[in-house]
Amino acid sequence: MKVLIVDENKEFTYELQEYFMKKSIEIDILNSYDKILEEYNQVNLHEYDSFIFEIDSENQQGLDILDYMNILEIDKPVIFISQEKSVELLSKAFAMGGEDFISKPFHIKELELRMLKGIRKKISKDEIELPNEYTYIYSEYAVAKHHSYIDMTKKQRQLLYLLITNKNNLVTYSMISDYVYNGKEFSNNAIATHIRDIRKKLPGIPIKAVKGDGYILKV
Questions:
Q1: What is the distance of C-alpha 64 from the center of its chain?
Q2: Of 216, 206, 127, 125, which Cα lies nearest the Cα of 170?
Q3: Per-residue pLDDT tens for 26-48?
Q4: What is the DSSP string of the chain?
Q5: Is residue 215's pLDDT more than 70?
Q6: Do 205 and 199 form a contact (C-beta atoms < 8 A)?
Q7: If I label 73, which of 21, 50, 62, 122 is the partner at 20 to 30 A Cα–Cα?
């Protein structure tokens, strides 16, 4: 699971990062919206499972990002956090499709529970049926057939999760780099090898290569 947090309070975001790392939840931190707003392709919003955006009356850029996500049809839960208890801000956030709104101060455990609830709600159920009688179990990052689990490596599971959560949409090499390789260098041939091995383990799974760009899971 990967989450993007945007909050200008560095001490607070460090505390969040420390907490979620212990929960094996990968966190990316930005202390301003500039990197996203100046050039949207600098931050690949498709790769995240949830978003936590700080907003207040003077800085509502998080709502601009949500508006852009709606244009891109990125249907992932966005939780807004704020120092203000503003009905106007809350109304705007929910009207634009925000998942939740929490006023500071709050316990991080509460934020975690609301975030996980939002992710489960978007998924709507823990399992999804795939072609050829396979079942994907989100909570376990696993694939089963007739109740028997398919053995997969960590990178294979990460790749498949990325493809399934972005099903029918292009998963670019940039997305794979960020999610599977943590931004480190890799070769397209290495990805092709992992995809080939996934296809061998899951015959009939319709993963299509898009030359030079990435892969799409067509379901």
A1: 18
A2: 216
A3: 889 998 888 777 755 567 788 88
A4: -EEEEE-S-HHHHHHHHHHHHHTT-EEEEESSSHHHHH-GGGS-GGG-SEEEEE--SS--HHHHHHHHHHHHT----EEEEESS--HHHHHHHHHTT--EEEESS--HHHHHHHHHHHHHHHH-SSEEEEGGGEEEEGGGTEEEETTEEPP--HHHHHHHHHHHHTTTS-EEHHHHHHHHSTT----HHHHHHHHHHHHHHSTT--EEEETTTEEEE--
A5: yes
A6: yes
A7: 21
Sequence ranges of the chain with CATH classification 3.40.50.2300: 2-123
Question: Does the domain formed by 2-123 have CATH 3.40.50.2300?
Answer: yes
- Report residue 155 as tokens: 């990178």
Boundaries of CATH 1.10.10.10 in the chain? 127-217
Q: What is the number of other CB atoms lying within 10 angstroms of the CB of residue 181? A: 14
Q: Which two tokens stand for residue 107?
A: 């316990």
User: What is the domain class of 127-217 according to CATH?
Assistant: mainly alpha
